[in-house]
Write a structure and sequence with these properties.
The protein has one domain: Alpha-Beta Plaits, CATH 3.30.70. The protein contains 4 helices and 3 strands. Strands 1-3-2 form a 3-stranded antiparallel β-sheet, with helices on one face. The C terminus is likely disordered.
């Protein structure tokens, strides 16, 4: 019997598109990813009051590596001067 890994949130973002970019980056590095979100947000296109929020989850033992990769991606983005905490709230 296999034990399920403990998953932790490494990012919270609004909109499935940004979350898919994070997922692709992490999976390319060999880190399994689960996106968790309310189904109404993407269907209706609402991103307010929690709807549209996507949580990017990875196994706990890979969380530090995932965080480092996502910070690296943020440093490469055009608005690298923005506050990284904004995306997580």
């Amino acid at each position: 019997m296999s034990q399920e890994p403990n998953l932790v949130i490494v990012r919270r973002c609004y909109g499935l598109t940004v979350a898919q970019i994070y997922k692709s980056k992490l999976e390319a590095a060999g880190i399994p990813v689960l996106l968790q979100y309310e189904s109404a947000g993407p269907v209706i296109g609402i991103t307010v009051d929690g709807l549209g929020q996507v949580r990017v989850l990875v196994p706990e033992e890979l969380a530090a590596r995932a965080e480092a990769l996502l910070v690296e991606q943020a440093d490469d983005s055009p608005d690298a001067g923005s506050d990284p905490q904004t995306e997580e709230q």
